[in-house]
Write a structure and sequence with these properties.
With about 500 residues, this protein is of the alpha+beta class. Helices cover about 35% and strands about 30% of the residues. Strand 11 and strand 12 form a beta hairpin. The relative contact order is 0.08.
Length: about 500
């Protein structure tokens, strides 16, 4: 995972888009791009509800171009944004991105720019045994698979129109995926080779791409490519799975990933298992630990190294974490509990990074913990191991997960978190196994079932899971699909419940 790059995974940059809030004169940026890199510019200025076009720095020898779009605020024509877009498309985007990688782009020229869109694609070359019918069958099957998994997910494929194209999501969503037939012309110096194949293209926009932009603007290209590559393959896997003939490249990626003996950037489950969580206090600590990992995602840490172990140092008032947990920020009791939690972080076991005949490396995940009083606030300064700092927990913390009422409420929430964290759109709750771990009266068992139902209802309300559940019963009764409402009686009869993740709630 530390060596994921666009080049290593044959990913090509297809589009880079930037937004600048408010009116900006495009000429200084256009002139900078022309003088330094030879870009000609198209300036599109909005007049009422149409665009007026003009060229700037247009010369015959220009190979590359950039497009500026100037938007004016005009509610009469439903234009509510005043600002500028700067778009690099196709080979222009690929060329500009390579300039960024080389550190040749001065971001201060762009002034208050934000990343609005970034497209990457993978081109799967056709083999001698591929046929047009096989492509059609693949895209049609993929379309049906996505519809079955998520009724809310927008997906379209027209089997009567060639060349074939599959669209997943809407153009306005954060992740818009397209798969389409394409012929690529490759310049072999003495001749042009035409190659047929399928192009798998992902448009990343809105808050999703903004979560990556700091790495681009801070010239942390390695981290930018690693995270975006992983995102591209995750989206590909979610949409198509690993079993189609035409997704062999996705399958190969995950097979190699699982075969790696090096540590990957996610939180390895085995690390958590090194600490036993047998008592209620230990289980509560685990729950708070996961909440803390979710909380620190919003901080940009200062990078420090000890040998080849990387740490990130962040600093924040502890009342901010209390507010995140929906706790009383003025409570001395809550503040004391939180301080104890931070101290306990240093008692987590070391992470064994390397173990071989010639080398052993063990890293403490929280080597620095400093609490200081600044005015009336306690401020925490903490160093976090890279492995935990970059961990992106695959779960959104809904309002009820900010707290728990009792032991059973806590255990239910941890169980659901674990289920939702599995790498599949289809999530399985082993209801019978979960309930059988408790030797309790039926009244208490009914309360636990209601806790499960209430939490699943909240996940539906937040558009994180589909409204329907598939039920597998204990007594051999025929399974039911699409059950809209769970009841304690249904849970009593159930062996397993399957629920389905909604990939992108913006659709």
């Amino acid at each position: 995972m530390n060596h994921l790059t666009f080049e290593s995974k044959s990913l090509v940059v297809d589009w880079i888009g930037f937004n600048i809030q408010g009116f900006v004169d495009p000429e200084p940026i256009a002139n900078y791009l022309f003088r330094n890199f030879g870009f000609k510019s198209i300036i599109k200025t909005q007049v009422s509800n149409t665009f007026k076009l003009e060229w700037l720095n247009r010369q015959k020898e220009n190979q590359f171009q950039v497009c500026f779009e100037q938007y004016e605020y005009n509610p009469e024509f439903k234009n509510f944004w005043l600002g500028s877009k700067i778009n690099f498309s196709g080979t222009n985007a690929d060329y500009f991105y390579n300039l960024v990688k080389k550190g040749q782009v001065d971001w201060t020229i762009f002034k208050e720019v934000s990343l609005s869109r970034f497209d990457i694609h993978y081109f799967r070359k056709s083999t001698s045994v591929d046929s047009n019918q096989q492509v059609k069958d693949f895209l049609e099957s993929a379309c049906n698979r996505i519809r079955e998994k998520s009724k809310r997910r927008k997906v379209s494929f027209d089997p009567t129109r060639e060349p074939y194209i599959l669209k997943v999501g809407s153009r306005s969503s954060s992740n818009f995926y397209r798969v389409y037939q394409k012929t690529k012309n490759i310049n072999r110096s003495v001749y042009i080779e035409s190659i047929e194949g399928l192009e798998f293209e992902l448009e990343v926009k809105k808050d999703v791409i903004k979560s990556f932009q700091q790495f681009l603007f801070n010239n942390q290209i390695e981290e930018f490519e690693k995270r975006l590559t992983q995102h591209f393959f995750n989206q590909s896997k979610q949409n198509f799975g690993l079993n189609f003939y035409y997704t062999d490249w996705v399958r190969d990626f995950y097979r190699k990933l699982s075969d790696r003996r090096e540590f990957n950037a996610g939180l390895v489950t085995d690390y958590i298992k090194q600490t036993k969580f047998d008592s209620l206090d230990e289980t509560m600590f685990l729950f708070r630990f996961l909440q803390f990992l979710s909380f620190i995602r919003k901080f940009e840490g200062k990078k420090e190294c000890i040998d080849d172990q990387v740490y990130y140092i962040i600093e924040f008032p502890i009342v901010d974490f209390l507010r995140f947990l929906d706790k009383d920020a003025k409570s001395t009791y809550q503040r004391s509990k939180l301080m104890k939690f931070f101290k306990d972080l240093q008692e987590l076991p070391p992470f064994v990074d390397k173990f071989s005949d010639s080398e052993f490396q063990s890293s403490i995940m929280f080597p620095l913990l400093k609490l200081t009083k600044q005015g009336r606030s306690w401020v925490l300064k903490i160093a976090i191991g890279e492995q935990l700092y970059w961990y992106s927990y695959p779960f959104r913390w809904t309002s009820s997960l900010r707290n728990f009422q009792n032991k059973y409420d806590l255990l239910v929430k941890l169980e659901i978190i674990q289920v939702l964290s599995t790498d599949s759109l289809e999530k399985k709750i082993s209801v019978a196994d979960f309930l059988n771990q408790f030797s309790i009266p039926n009244k208490k068992r009914t309360e636990i079932k209601k806790l499960i139902i209430d939490l699943l209802d909240e996940l539906k309300a937040f558009d994180l899971i589909e409204a329907g559940f598939d039920i597998v019963y204990k007594d051999g009764k025929k399974p039911e699909k699409g059950v809209k409402m769970l009841t304690p009686s249904i849970l009593s009869q159930s062996k397993e419940i399957f629920l389905y993740e909604i990939i992108d709630s913006n659709n």
